[in-house]
Amino acid sequence: MNSLKTRVLLGAALVAGSAAAALAAPPALYTADQAKAGADVYAQNCAMCHGADLSGAAGPALVGQAFANAANKFTVGPVFTEVVQQMPAGQPASLTHEQYEDAFAYILQQNGYPAGTTKLDYTATMSSKVPLVSEKP
Amino acid sequence: MPKISLQHRLKGATAFGCAGLALAACAALAVPAKAQTAAPAAAPVAPAYTPVSQSDLVGASTSDGWLMFNRDYAGQDYVPFDQINAGNVSTLSTAWTSGKIDIPDGFEGTPIVSGNYMFVTTPKDHVIAYNAKTGEKLWQYDYKIAPAAYKTLCCDTNNRGVAVYGSSVIFGTLDNHVVALDATTGKEQWNVSLAEPGVGYSITEAPLVVNGKVIIASGGGEYGARGFIVGLDATNGQQVWKTYTIPSPDEPGGDTWPKGMYQTGGGAAWMTGTYDADTNTLLWGVGNPGPWLAKMRPGKNLYSDSLLALDPDTGKMKWYYQYTANDTWDYDGVNTPQLADITYEGKSYKAVIEANRNGYFYAIDRTDGKLIYAKPFIHDTSILGIDKTGHAITNEELKPTLTKSIFTCPSFLGGKNWWPGSIDPETNMAYVPTLHACMTMVGVPVTYSAGLPFLGEKFEMKDDPTSPGQYGSLQAIDLSTGKKVWEQKSSYPWDAGTLATKGGLVFSGTVDGYLKAFDAKTGQVVWTSPQLTSGIISNPISYQIDGKQYVAIWTGWGGVWPIWAGKLAAPEVKIPRGGQLYVFALPSS
């Protein structure tokens, strides 16, 4: 009885632990090809305001804790929506959906999100509730 | 492409302020030609400093210095000096300069001159004291901005200047602190925080000191930050009063908002106000409501886009005047409310004058907040006229929805943006830096998320079809009629403040880096400086020391236009970045 109880508790703890670990690892939200193309989109349309290394200039930093930390409680949806609605500042919606997908894939990659096999999709990403917390300092 | 990677925002914040690049640059260069020959290690000899009293501030209009943001409580940006005049302005030459300061952002500061001291601010909240006569650098203070603050800056890292009171130099910061420094040493006297950085608020305006209280407010209207104005005890920074610009449901005006929306209602009072000493009334403008898309917040949305008359000792409201009700076009009401005694249709008024973002030039009775007149000063399709109650009639047809895109004039940057204009009591004219542009705008879905823009609109600046390719002008407007007397047009936006002088001159700067003097009566250009190091987006000032008149201006291109004007800003992409303060005077005979 005693040992069974212990084992059940231990099992529950293990399950809870692995669930937490799964949550903590950032999910794959884009493909490596998208991020690669996104580096160019970023360099040509965003870097002049957000810095070649994303660390900010006339526009805010797009990398690290200054961009997205746990306290901000950002999710991917509103930030992606901000990009497609307003960016590049002064010339909103001037890029193609694909360019926005790629640029955002690049920003996710720079913030420590891994590439995967499913493409980042414009419409779906606008309402994404995945937490946006940078893995970078 | 603007060269803005040198000292980008984060480095400026994490490194010790301008300690990296700018401090070195300032230390090496920010001395006048004469002082450079002195032994480099010699500490500057601080001139004596006379503390500034409330009566000095009340008398600022006759002072030899420039004691507050708009020179005097009336906010006229007019000096009673005539040593420099139409007859000799052509010989104006550089008395001293700060040397180039390597911060690639917009220099929007107005220098403050008290006795022999000049106190200036740079982008990213550095404060420098110079000997106003010789240009010798006396001290520099590098404020350390919390990195989170950079998240919520819509329009560059500017700081528009300090206030002086007693022996203190007082300024606000991008991360919402208010700091007092010792005028002679630059040592911190007190430092208080008004709000957390990174959730929406940021301070860019210069404080105004009235009756021993430091009056200051923050920006944040693009992030749904609920605006407020505070009065702090000038001796220790302790808050004496705080007045929200957007009322809660149980306060007067609270019923002009849909339930709960006041909390994210914007209304940032982000420009320095003025003060009527005769009636002890503070006049302070309030910015746009949040989110931008008006269809999300039916109602007048008081006190957004309004002028507030407050008691400076308690923050209690005496009256208000709303320029644009239920605004959806970003027509902030924050341009300087300038006090002037005027005559209109045979009657005399104690007026407050404001050239509004919505494109109308307002004269309001400053004793009761009633409209005297309002006349359009640009091509305006958003405002159709003035109704019987004395308020703007907004064009409901040109309000965007989620499915309706509109084209209207002026653009979201307004017929005039923040640059202080001036009022000349001798010519009875107001000199107004003017923008000529229109915009497209359409609603987009938005939900509030602290730290992200809260707009609900997509917008893009376009040429004004009545003046394509002409984005700026400097206008003179007759205070007795509200009508234009002269206008100097420019293909560039008119992006700088104006200074009027008793010498019959109006000074203003251009985006391509020239300081110019205009004949106050005719608008004719009577002097153009050599091309300065960068574009001008600041306000010129003038002061006198030992009987000599000086004119000072910051160069340093940046600010809102290159970020938000999109394709219209293409011609300015090559303008060099970096700041430099220039001080001009007549050559010594």
TrEMBL record, chain A:
GO MF annotation: an example: electron transfer activity
First and last residue of the signal peptide: 1-24
Protein keywords: Heme, Iron, Metal-binding, Signal
Organism this protein belongs to: Acidocella aromatica
InterPro entries membership: Cyt_c-like_dom, Cyt_c-like_dom_sf, Cytochrome_c-type_DH
Pfam families for the chain: Cytochrome_CBB3
Top-level taxon: Bacteria
The Cytochrome c domain, residue ranges: 33-111
Protein name: Mono/diheme cytochrome c family protein
Automatic annotation (TrEMBL), chain B:
Name this protein carries in UniProt: Alcohol dehydrogenase (Cytochrome c)
Alphabetical keyword list: Calcium, Disulfide bond, Metal-binding, Oxidoreductase, PQQ, Signal
Residue numbers annotated as active site: D330 (proton acceptor)
Matching InterPro entries: ADHI, PQQ_b-propeller_rpt, PQQ_MeOH/EtOH_DH, PQQ_rpt_dom, Quinoprotein_ADH-like_sf
Molecular-function GO terms, alphabetical: alcohol dehydrogenase (cytochrome c) activity; calcium ion binding
Sequence positions that bind Ca(2+): E222, N288, D330
Family: Belongs to the bacterial PQQ dehydrogenase family.
Cystine connections: C154-C155
NCBIfam families: PQQ_enz_alc_DH
Keyword Ribonucleoprotein assigned: no
Domain named Pyrrolo-quinoline quinone repeat: residues: 66-373, 398-551
GO cellular component, one term: membrane
Signal peptide: 1-35
Cofactor(s) required for function per UniProt: pyrroloquinoline quinone; Ca(2+)
EC number: 1.1.2.8
Chain positions recorded as pyrroloquinoline quinone binding sites: E108, R160, T204, N417, W418, V560
Co-factor note (free text): Binds 1 PQQ group per subunit. Binds 1 Ca(2+) ion per subunit.
